[in-house]
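Students often ask why we bother encoding 3D structure as a string. The short answer is that it lets us treat folding as translation between two languages. Here is a chain of 194 residues written in the first language.
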Amino acid sequence: MNLFQELRFLLDISRSHRIARRYFVTNGFDGALAMLGLTMGFYITDAVAVSTVLNACMGTAIALMMSGLLSAYISEAAERQKELHELEQAMVTNLAHSAHGKAARLIPLLIALVNGGSPFFIALLIISPLWLNQYGVVLPLGPLETSIAVAFGIIFLLGVFLGKISGTFWLWTGLRTLAIAVITGLLILLLQAG
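And here it is in the second language, the structure alphabet:
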């Protein structure tokens, strides 16, 4: 059994697919909205260097990743140990070296990687136009405007993904998450007007 098959087996016996998927969407959405807020905040502020925006966004992305990694690992490890202990009591045996024991050790790591990785990689996608600008790539819009457009696109796609999972109309769920992003953007624009 290769590593991928083993992880899939451990996810199956621990019934953790849904948890990992939920963490991916929840923290991915947080990461996308945080980057949207940052880039729009810089957009309404005149004369901020792209390198400054990039550093602020990278700092936020790293903080989101670390928060996601540690919070998920701590909570999932505690839950898995509790479940393993209850199973051991019910079966009156030590399961530390069984597949259930292995799942109790590895699944919290996997879920932590999903929880911390999703906002980080989504943030990297959103700020990629800022990097491209730093390397002299000419974009059809300005770097901040392009990053904001990418953020809206990713938030829409997260909604589409949710629609596919729930079996509802994908366009409706995509538009619903996009509406949340638009409202967030409008609230930030109100800062400039105020």
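Translate back mentally: The two ends are 61 Å apart (CA to CA). Keep this in mind for the problem set.
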